[in-house]
């Protein structure tokens, strides 16, 4: 899942709930107001009738009235949207849920938005950088740790790529905003 941060896709208002991107409206489908939705969430089974979502930069509230599977994602119909023309107005807009409504994960698993921005330290407590990006690969995720200025790798900062495996990631401390890692031989020059 993606989290909404600052900028045009930010929370609905100052002090409003933090939101997670769960999908994107692709196009109208059929003549009854259904929308083909590209699913970004790992929990699409939670997108059922009566579920409330937010859409777009204005965070308009929508309620799902109908759901069915489709080879390219999900087909969702929303209350008060009954024509392909109405769905067309929603094309390419992101769908969100409040962070508070995300399903809990098993112990030791984290949503990307929970670990992005953590300070990464080695076993001795030496700071290695900030977890700036997560690359999803076939075998396991790879954490991109930015060293130096985390915003600008071209201005003297470098990147450290860490496989997200138990042999490397020793522990995550969300309250302290740190991730402790073991550097396998060859990971650092």
Describe this structure in words.
With 189 residues, this protein is mainly beta. It has 2 domains: 2-101, RimM (Elongation Factor Tu (Ef-tu), domain 3, Beta Barrel); 112-181, SH3 type barrels. The chain has helices at residues 84-88, 112-115, and strands at residues 2-3, 19-29, 34-39, 52-55, 60-70, 73-78, 94-98, 119-121, 127-135, 142-147, 158-163, 169-173, 178-181. The protein has a 6-stranded antiparallel barrel. Strand 9 (127-135) and strand 10 form a beta hairpin. It is elongated and about 60 Å long.
**Content of β-strand:** 35-45%
Structural class: mainly beta
Low-confidence stretches: 1-13
CATH architecture of the largest domain: Beta Barrel
Assigned CATH superfamily of the largest domain: RimM
Shape: elongated
Short synopsis of the structure:
5% of the residues lie in helices and 41% in strands. By secondary structure, it is mainly beta. The radius of gyration is 20 Å and the shape is elongated.
Task: List the main descriptive attributes of the protein structure presented here.
Elongation Factor Tu (Ef-tu), domain 3; 6-stranded antiparallel barrel; mainly beta; elongated; 6-stranded mixed sheet; 189 residues; 13 strands; 2 domains; SH3 type barrels
């Amino acid at each position: 899942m993606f989290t909404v941060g600052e900028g045009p896709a930010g929370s609905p208002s100052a002090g409003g709930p933090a939101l997670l991107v769960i999908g994107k409206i692709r196009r109208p489908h059929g003549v009854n107001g259904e929308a083909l939705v590209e699913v970004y969430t790992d929990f699409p089974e939670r997108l059922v009738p009566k579920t409330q979502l937010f859409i777009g930069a204005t965070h308009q509230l929508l309620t799902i009235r109908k759901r069915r599977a489709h080879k390219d994602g999900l087909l969702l119909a929303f209350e008060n949207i009954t024509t392909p023309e109405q769905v067309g107005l929603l094309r390419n807009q992101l769908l969100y849920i409040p962070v508070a409504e995300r399903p809990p994960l098993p112990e030791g698993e984290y949503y990307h938005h929970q670990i992005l921005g953590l300070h990464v330290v080695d076993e001795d407590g030496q700071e290695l950088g900030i977890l700036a990006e997560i690359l999803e690969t076939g075998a396991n995720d790879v954490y991109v740790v930015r060293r130096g200025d985390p915003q600008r790798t071209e201005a003297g900062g470098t990147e450290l790529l860490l496989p997200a495996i138990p042999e490397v990631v020793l522990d995550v401390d969300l309250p302290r905003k740190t991730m402790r890692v073991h550097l396998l031989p060859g990971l650092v020059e």
